[in-house]
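worker-3 :: picked 3CxxC-type domain-containing protein
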Amino acid sequence: PAPGGTMRTWQDIFAEKIADVHLTEPWMLQEDDTLQVHVLKPGWKEFVHWSPPCPGRFRCSQCLHEWSSAKVHILFHMCRRQGHGTVRMRAFRQACRRCPDPQLEEAEFNYETVEKLLHNLVLKILQYFYHVSVQPSDLLEVVVDAPVAGPHDSNRCEGCQLGICSKLRPPQEMHLRFLIFPKGGTSGCSPAFAVYSSICPGPMYLWMSLVSLGVQRLLCPPKISRC
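worker-3 :: tokens ->
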């Protein structure tokens, strides 16, 4: 079965999302547990939800122990050929820490999480294959809806053991620091406060927007450094 329910459930939601954007070409969603990160055949594109990773729940098939994880990666590979499209997906599994010889278990996701994942997937299809402009703000954020205790157990994570999780790092972000001074000048003044941001696109636009407010004054444009 697909993570979070039957594969039919994922396919039905995916079909609804495709219909919502008025694509007339058929698209098909399939499971594929052989997918590898950054290993693509010619013509295929890759999408994975970078940050934060998807929240999911697991249930051990041996001792029935249940646990939550805020670090579940789902990998999508997609291709469009001869008037139809195919998407293959793989969710990386986790094992129970209580059992001495545990099996890898499939993650389960709530309906809202599945909807958001597939919404973002369809936007990437539009961007990759239909040349539709997609902004980062168009993607829906997948939110952890329950507290998760303890650190991520990399020894019990299929993605970590395959070296996948280390590859699934988001692109470097630009960390911006704004020194904001009281209106009227900076002579003899200390910054009223500093604003730190990890927004990647448009730092100069953000600086100009703050200046245009006319309430505070920036000493200088944001100094940009990469982590």
